[in-house]
Amino acid sequence: MRRSKAVSALSLVAGASLLLSACSGGDSGSGNTDQNGSSTDVKAMAVGKAETGDLFKLADTPGYEGTVTIGIDDGYSGYNNQTPDTNSSYNNYVLTAVLSGTLKLDGNNKVLLNNDIFDSWDVTQKDPQQVTYKIKPNIKWSDGQPYDCKDLYLAWLSQSGLAKGPDGKNPFNSASTTGYSLIKTATCKDNLTFVTDYSEPYLDYKGLFNAPAIMPAHVLEAKTGIADITKLAPTGDPAQIKKAGDFWSNEWKGFKADIMPASGPYKITAFDANQKAVTLEKNPQWPGGKGGPSKIVIKAMEDTKAMATALQNGEIDVAASTQPDATAAQTMKGLAAQGVTYGSASQLTYEHLDLNFKRMFADKDLRKAFFESINRKEITDKLLKEVQADAEPLNSVVFFQGEPGYTDLYSSKAGLGAEAAAKTLTDAGWAKGPDGIFAKNGQRASFKITHNQNARRSQTVEIIISQAKAAGIEVKDETDANFLKGGRVSTGDYDVALFGWSSQPFKAESKSIYVCPDKGGEQNYQSLCDPKIDDAYNAAVKATDEQVKVQKYQEADKAIADDYATLPLFQTPSMWAFKGIDRVYMQSYDGVLWNVGEWEQKK
Question: What Pfam families does the annotation carry (predicted)?
């Protein structure tokens, strides 16, 4: 599922790919750094210490006695990260250490089976497609209850889009049903064997049943009075479906110790919403490696410069930002003498502007003119070069630069200049008013760009305001700290939304962002609806030939661009720095905690 980040806010969905080997990292003071200032040792930290082939296990290391404090850009808000109001990268960055699923991604975005919990995830039949999951025996949640087939069944039931309550509506408020909706039946053959039968081929099946998707079924059963969730079919007793859906959608917010056990190496033990801090301690039931810090405190630090200063002052041990900032990067690079290692890497995340089709951007000519007025190179040059020296505008919303299928679809549409934008509006019947702003039928070309509290986003809007003004378009900056997690972005309460989508390496997950809202576009908050996009995505998702799949995703990509719906700005680089720990790598989708259970104190 794509997740939005305050970089945007896991309203997000999914996305792309990458690669390496292992050794303990030194600091960046040797002078042996890459063009972005990262220690060359950082690349060697992208692979788990016990990773072999396509299997991931946490290495059993000596660990780290004491507390590690980590700064990230925005705060944790919910244990169930699959609902629209919680679906955020920042929840995911915490939950990757707390919940376990089938999938692990290493720092190179390599798709691995979580072999601490699962024995296999095999296609046991090709036509029609069937996938069988085997859970290891004796796996338990932190409260001592079995982690078993029930938990995977609940993940399917809640995200299949098939469940119906008494009113005929689905009470499971899932951010996305992509992939799960193609599973026509899900069956627990026994407590450890889960079988999924598909109505259509789905090559990206490994992206399903990942860690945040798998909630504790035994908790839901106990709190709703449902005796056995696996006996509840989507078309079963509507009253029972409603009980299950209401609990799943509403009760797993924030933190309540009695209903939020862990299945990962750590469990949440405290959450301070006011301080935006969450505390993790080791899960005594974890079956894998027993290393990692004794305690972890994760703090939201929305000011990236303040995060870098906190690292400098010893207030935090790890600074992990998905919000690149030149000043913060300079500060962290300069801390090598304090034993700090700095890293930067491209993420499977793209920063973009979403135009709301239910407001004034129903007018395609206005969308086109706005695109033409924006010089994205000025934005990347001013805001990203210190973090990523070769940063440049992204010209696709489906593919990342360097991937097979990537085509430049936006250089011919964006950055054409003020004169081109003004001509587009004039030709469409817009006229400049005495204030220099175009208007038509009493509507001025004036609107807000809304984003979360983020210095770089404010700087981005400042640049756009100047560019648009030259074209006779008035842009206003609206900062809302809760924009990505307060329901505004997920209900389409904006003119233009500035945020980022973060993804796993599976293209199918982007479908829920761009197909029509009533055709599976649960994360299509801008109300874009184009049959050409729907048809291309539907063909791509069920394609069994790789060339056909890429071609159809390219068709969807082009149709989105031709609608002037979303303007991609750039692929967002991460930046992180740490001290006192042997090796830390910021995984593109899961953040720095993806392998925290094998961190060791640096000797």
Answer: SBP_bac_5
